[in-house]
Amino acid sequence: MTATKPYAQLTYEEMAAKNKEYVWHPFTQMKQYIEDDPVIITHGKGRKLYDMQGKEYWDGVSSIWLNVHGHCIEEIDNAIREQLDLVAHSTLLGMANVPSVLLAEKLVEIMPKGLRKVFYSDAGATSVEIAIKMAFQYWQHKGKPAKQHFITMKEAYHGDTIGAVSVGAIDLYHKTYSSLLFPSIKVTYPFVYRSPYGEDHDVIVKKHLEELEELLKERGHEIAALIVEPIVQGASGIIVMPEGYLRGVRELCTTYNVLMIADEVATGFGRTGKMFACEHEGVTPDILTAGKGITGGYLPVAITVTTDNIYEAFLGEYEEQKTFFHGHSYTGNPLGCAAALANLELFEKNRLVEQVANKSIYLESRLNDFYELEHVGDIRQKGFMIGIELVKDKTTKEAYEWKERIGVLVCRRAKELGMLLRPLGNVIVFMPPLASTVEELDDMLSILKQAIYDITEEDKE
Ligand code: PLP
């Protein structure tokens, strides 16, 4: 397949010049970026992306953690086209559209039991904003206006809007805005590799739950909700919780009458080997947020799903003004919802969640070989969510310094070898599309290993 229409008129150099002239890229230091030759994607097929210079790449981070089946998947393409012939968009403010109704029904079917009402938006961050406002307002309606505060986890990431940043805790991204934010209370997310409590998972879980309980005992009466990235804390470096912690958090939230918000924006829709990560521990949160994979990685749809109990607290006479005054122009977009329905049908048809769970066992065994590399300190994996932490010294776990840009260099090498990746500091993130075949995964893993070796070892020979 070749690039068509607008691209065909322009050379790569002309397009790169326009990119440099007009586009400000997210999470990108533009001073360096504009010095480099940019990858400019023209099209994709299956698990690969193709650029204007005729190079092809594995989509090794699923286009920032969201692609599911691959690119240009016939069933999803057709669903969008069919919906386009009907209507591209109509509002959900006070009215409905067909795909958003059908999708909500489907979502309730696959959600952890008890989550029954779907509120749509268009990004992970907006789904979190909604969860925060919903939890806050819920307590006002319940006659407990003192419950206004939020607990979050250290190093949490919930998106880049101001509310989501307020419950975020990654200094590098969030500190600058501190005076703009509402304060949130932070507890420590259990991080086995660098735990001060040793290596015994049970001990780590116990210590962290004690920390949370102490806080809840003292301040539970003024806490509206706790927000957590269940099972895997993503942007902090793919930190996988030890077993039992999430269940413990759920129990403590119930005991101390605090709502639990599970942010499944990264973990939802099969990524960890269950449809939702909460299922690993049989947990139903009071509010679940999700986005990314919901449309198979096609269109911006996100959801905040909650219980009948919370929904019903907002019911009242018009003049009572209990309405949830929140919405976005593209809330419940029919094209996005049609894509999501087709995506979920493919999940079922291909038994994709089961496939991810099975293939992740294979991935684990292949990844184990990476420990033979001198600078691979820790490999963290849950399903198709993988983080490889590179360290200067394995014995002391000494970290590479920020200025060494080790993650950036490894990902740059991977790009040369044919795979697109994006690091989180010294952690190389590998998140292949969920439908990747074993052969495709093998190819991607070879590139990954080679890139790590070339950057961390070869230079020293
Ligand atoms: N929450 C979590 C756990 C995430 O990992 C992300 C993005 O990576 C977000 C929220 C924000 O999602 P979005 O980028 O769609 O706003």
TrEMBL record:
Substrate binds at Y157, K292, G327, R422. InterPro entries: Aminotrans_3 (IPR005814), Aminotrans_3_PPA_site (IPR049704), BioA (IPR005815), PyrdxlP-dep_Trfase (IPR015424), PyrdxlP-dep_Trfase_major (IPR015421), PyrdxlP-dep_Trfase_small (IPR015422). PROSITE patterns: AA_TRANSFER_CLASS_3. The modification N6-(pyridoxal phosphate)lysine is found at K292. Homodimer. Its EC number is 2.6.1.62. Keywords: Aminotransferase, Biotin biosynthesis, Cytoplasm, Pyridoxal phosphate, S-adenosyl-L-methionine, Transferase. Catalyzes the transfer of the alpha-amino group from S-adenosyl-L-methionine (SAM) to 7-keto-8-aminopelargonic acid (KAPA) to form 7,8-diaminopelargonic acid (DAPA). It is the only aminotransferase known to utilize SAM as an amino donor. Its cofactor is pyridoxal 5'-phosphate. It catalyses: (8S)-8-amino-7-oxononanoate + S-adenosyl-L-methionine = S-adenosyl-4-methylsulfanyl-2-oxobutanoate + (7R,8S)-7,8-diammoniononanoate. This is Adenosylmethionine-8-amino-7-oxononanoate aminotransferase. Belongs to the class-III pyridoxal-phosphate-dependent aminotransferase family. BioA subfamily. The keyword Cytoplasm applies. One of its GO terms (molecular function) is adenosylmethionine-8-amino-7-oxononanoate transaminase activity. It is found in: Cytoplasm. The record marks F27 as: Participates in the substrate recognition with KAPA and in a stacking interaction with the adenine ring of SAM. Pfam families: Aminotran_3. Pathway: Cofactor biosynthesis; biotin biosynthesis; 7,8-diaminononanoate from 8-amino-7-oxononanoate (SAM route): step 1/1. Pyridoxal 5'-phosphate binds at G124, A125, D263, H328, S329.
